[in-house]
Structures are given as C-alpha cells and as structure tokens.
Design brief:
heterodimer; A: alpha+beta; Naphthalene 1,2-dioxygenase Alpha Subunit, Chain A, domain 1; seven-stranded antiparallel sheet; 10 helices; about 25% strand; B: globular
Chain lengths: ~425, ~150
C-alpha cells in the first residue's frame, strides 16, 4: 500500500513510477479525489438550454447525468439506479420528462427524486414493497452543482468549499475572460490513451514540453518558448494557467535559442496561413491560455481555437480525453469557419497535440516494469512551488502532486505545498 | 456526369493503397484542385455539429496537413492497412464505401484502428475521376492513441 514514505523528495521533484500503475491507489483516487472535496467539470449550460435537456458525463469513473429541471435549475446525479445499481439513463444526451431505469422501470424526476415503482403494492395485494419503504430515501444520488459563466461543475462531497473559493482568483479571472460571452458547441472529440490519467494531468501543466514535443509550434511559427509567458497557480498550487503573449519575441531571438538547444529552427510557412493566424478577440495579447483545474478539467485557448477537455480515467492503464470544441454564440459564419480550421491544431489529430498521446504511452509503458524508480521534475528549479514568468518550467507538476498527496493522505511531514 | 464504375473502383483501390504505402504525394493527386477533406466523428455528424478531427476545406489545408505530417508531427510508428468495401453509387457524382483501417506496430501487433464510411463527391478531370469533397464519417470516434496518418 502506498503511504507517505513513497516520496523520495519533499518538494515532489521525484515521482515514483508506482504512482502511475498501482491498482489499489487507483481505487483510492476514485474515492478520495473524484469522490472527495474537488469540483469536477461536468459540461456546459449551453448543452442543456431547455427544461428536460440532459447530458451524460463522468466524475472520475462514476457516470453522472446533468439536466435542467422544469424550473430551469441545473441538477446533477450519479447515473445509477437506487434499486439494483443499473445505469439509468443510457443515452448520452436528449430531452425527457423523467429518467426511467430499463431494468425494473424505477422512475426518477428531473430533480432526481424517485417518483414511481412498478408493482409497488404488488398484484392483487400480493408482493411488492412493504408500505414502510421510503421513496424519499431512494432517489438518484445528487451532486452539488456550481455554475460559473455557463460552465457546470459538480462535487460529490458535502464538505467541498464553494466553487469560486476552490478555483481561486487566477483561475476565476482566466475562466471569466474566456467565457465572457455565451458559447456554442461546435462538436466533440475523444481520444483513448493507453496511459494513467495523471500523465495527462501532468502534461497539461508542462510548459517545457510544448515547443519541443510539438515541433509544429515552432516550425510553423505558432508558439515558441521565447515568447513572453509563464505559469500561474492558485494559492494551493493545484490548478495552473500556462500563458503566452502573441508576437512577443523576435525570429532572431527564437532562432538563436532553438539552434542553441539543438532543436530545429528553420521556420517554414503554410500554404493556408489562417491555420495559425491569431485574431485578437480582447484587449490582452494572450494567444496561449491553458487552464488546468484539479483534478480533471482543462480550459484551452490556443490561438482562436477554444475547447474544454475532461480527463476521464478508464482504469489504471487508460485515460479518455473528452474534448468539447467551442465558439461564441455571436461568431460570424466566417469566424466559425476560422475556428473550425484552427480546430486542426488540437484534439487527437491536432497538429500541436497529437504527440501527447504518443508521449504518454511511451512513459506509461516504459515506467511499468520498474515501479521504484522515479521521474525527475526540476525544470525551473526544485524546492519552493511558485509562479514563474518564463516558460522553460514544469513547476506546476509539483503543485499537482502536492495537492494529490494531501487528498490521498500520503503527504509527508515537511513537504512543500 | 455518368460515373464509370471501373474508374470508381480504381480510385478507391488506389486511395487506400497509397496511404498504406505512405505515398502521400500520389495520394494528394487523387484529389481535385478545389477539394475538401474532412474526418467527422459520428457523434458530431448525428447531432449536426460541424467540428472535425481533420478539417481541410481547401487543397492548401490538405497539403499543409501532409507537410506537417512529414516535417513536424511525431506519432506512433506504425503501418496502416485499409480494407475498403465496394463503393456504391448514391447518385451521379456521389459514392459511399465502408472502410476499416488496421494499424500494426513495429513489433507486429495489429489493432483495429478505425471503421466508418466514406461519403464522397467525385468529379471527372480529363480521363480521370477525382475526389472533390471527401467526407469521412468516423464510427470509431474514440480515437485509439492518436490520429496522424490520413484515414
């Protein structure tokens, strides 16, 4: 069993491979992280605009549904029948007046309450449930729902802090910036990576890899580590914003830096420059803003492509990355086309993201046989965990592990936070 | 335009064989000068949502994607094998064919990578038949690992 003695270093600069492969630990994560005092991203208010609209989602591996009830309130429940534990709502989305389990047709209202049980009184006075059976105690298990500018979060924990406190000022500012106008869904994509979910959570906090693994970024001039940028975290260092300003470096600086690093720096141009052309939409110059919210949500602006990613663990050895591609409701048809073109950048076939699937599988496969050895996380320095105003850093990974250790109850004495 | 079935079958056979042989320049030559190429997850298509996994609304974007594949992208080292069903003419200029793509890694392990339906607008260019608008409706929209080489 993994305990606080697992950590070789109190600053989380070493992470034993065991943490990506231990089946018992994986089960504990489901209980203490996804079932614990975190807020998980569920979906968008824009996906359920009308009463009766519902969508399926996940909190960790637990299937949930969120819907809009007749009064317009958004509610979310564990998608599991109180009777025999069957999945109640099988469709991924739709509109309905209630949710009926197919197994024995137990029926739940849009508020999650159990409203009808077939043959409750039996037939001709025989069978059925005892009159003392309490319908009110057998509804769908509710989640607390929090909404922020159309983003829906849920938590299974009674004691979770308020959503806005959980997110903290830097993340709130970033989400309010990105969701300052109503959004519309352009579509979804999904990717199944044969790796532990935490490798993906780390990847989204790893600024160092971006322009090295994703060579397209530098080759075609979309993003370079020489730009003004950095990482910014909440007070507990569990969330992270990776950011960069557009056009904030020069070709000469970039060429010198990448040539010096032994990385290709012969910049090429595209036949269709719109693939990487950034059209500023706000007063700021941010063209990269990747906000990772512990444990499993990522809000992504890369140039003019907008997306929300949900990290869905699928057992200790596999993760699904579920991505919702977005535009703004008031986009012109021409702007929508621009976003659909720039959607080429992200997702499982993304020109600047496909490599993540390969890198994560390489780590997962290769780390498995040697669980007591560790990864090295020291870019931007070891020791204290803090914001950085430069891009060659992976400090936010240590923030992730710090909060992870706290929730799992494996935080060693004297550890950094 | 009346479609010659022999030309149609040849076009689809060449299409799969050229990807599997990684002969992408010849593969690009199967498309018309003004063309589209889109890989759309079936869950988007069924809901009328436009987002695609690869969205090439012009030949320039399609060529950029192939150039990026060669010059910049890193992906799982593998070979593709297309198994394309007989194309079926829907109406003049529109054909459909089911497909499966298997991927084999360097150690000889094969997995079913994708299955779906090609729904293609065709055009006659001189004596040849070419793709004008290739829509790939992807049944396997939970992409195994990643999607780099064209389907």
């Amino acid at each position: 069993m993994v305990t606080a003695t697992i950590w070789p270093a109190l600053d989380y600069s070493r992470v034993p491979y065991r943490l990506y492969h231990d089946a018992e630990l994986y089960q504990r994560e489901q209980e203490r992280i996804f079932g614990g005092p975190v807020w998980s991203f569920l979906g968008l208010a824009a996906e359920i605009p009308n009463p009766g609209d519902f969508r399926a989602s996940y909190v960790g591996e637990t299937p949930v549904i969120f819907n809009r009830d007749q009064s317009g309130t958004v509610r979310a429940f564990v998608n599991r029948c109180a009777h025999r534990g069957a999945l109640v709502r099988r469709e991924l989305s739709g509109n309905a007046a209630n949710h009926i389990c197919i197994y024995h047709q137990w029926c739940y209202g849009l508020d999650g309450r159990l409203t009808a049980i077939p043959f409750r009184r039996g037939i001709r006075g025989k069978g059925g449930l005892d009159p003392s059976f309490d319908m009110g105690a057998h509804g769908l298990r509710p989640l607390r729902v929090g909404e922020l500018d159309g983003l829906l979060f849920g938590t299974l924990a009674e004691d979770a802090e308020p959503l806005e406190d959980y997110l903290g000022p830097p993340v709130l500012e970033q989400l309010r910036r990105l969701f300052d106008r109503p959004v519309k869904v352009l579509g979804y994509n999904r990717q199944r990576i044969r790796g532990n979910w935490k490798l993906y959570a780390e990847n989204t906090r790893d600024n160092y890899h971006a322009s090295l693994l994703h060579e397209f970024l530098v080759t075609f001039g979309l993003d370079r580590s020489t730009q003004v940028g950095g990482v910014r975290m909440d007070a507990r260092h569990r969330h992270n914003i990776t950011w960069a300003d557009a056009d904030s470096d020069s070709d000469e600086l970039a060429q010198a830096a990448y040539a010096g690093a032994g990385v290709r720096s012969n910049f090429l141009s595209l036949q269709e420059p719109a693939l990487v052309t950034f059209r500023p939409e706000r007063a700021d110059r941010l063209n990269i803003a990747i906000t990772s919210v512990f444990p499993s949500a990522v809000f992504v602006q890369i140039s003019n492509s907008l997306a929300v990613r949900q990290i869905r663990p699928r057992g200790v050895d596999e993760v699904e990355v579920f991505q919702t591609m977005l535009g703004y409701a008031d986009d012109t048809p021409e702007m929508t086309l621009h976003r659909l073109r720039q959607a080429n950048l992200v997702g499982p076939a993304g020109l600047v993201s496909m490599e993540d699937g390969e890198a994560i599988e390489l780590v997962h496969r290769t780390s498995k046989p040697d669980p007591d050895r560790s990864t090295v996380i020291e870019l931007g320095g070891a020791g204290v965990i803090s914001d950085r105003d430069y891009r060659v850093t992976d400090v936010p990974l240590r923030g992730f592990w710090s909060y992870y250790a706290e929730l799992l109850g494996i935080e060693p004495d004297g550890a950094v936070r | 335009m009346t479609i010659d079935r022999v030309l149609l079958y040849d076009l689809f056979a060449e299409y799969g064989a050229l990807i599997d042989a990684a002969r992408y320049d010849e593969w690009l030559a199967l498309f018309g000068e003004e063309c589209r190429y889109r890989i759309v997850p079936r869950e988007n298509f069924d809901r009328g949502l436009p987002a695609a996994l690869m969205f090439c609304d012009s030949r320039a974007v399609l060529e950029d994607r192939i150039r990026a594949l060669r010059e910049a992208n890193k992906y799982n080292i593998h070979t593709d094998r297309h198994v394309i069903g007989l194309p079926r003419l829907i109406d003049d200029g529109l054909a459909e064919a089911p497909f499966a793509v298997y991927q084999t890694d360097q150690e000889g392990e094969t997995r079913l990578f994708a299955t779906g339906l090609y729904r293609d607008r065709l055009e006659a260019v001189g004596p040849n038949l070419k793709f004008r608008d290739k829509l790939i409706l992807l049944d396997t929209f939970a992409i195994p690992s990643l999607l780099a080489t064209p389907l």
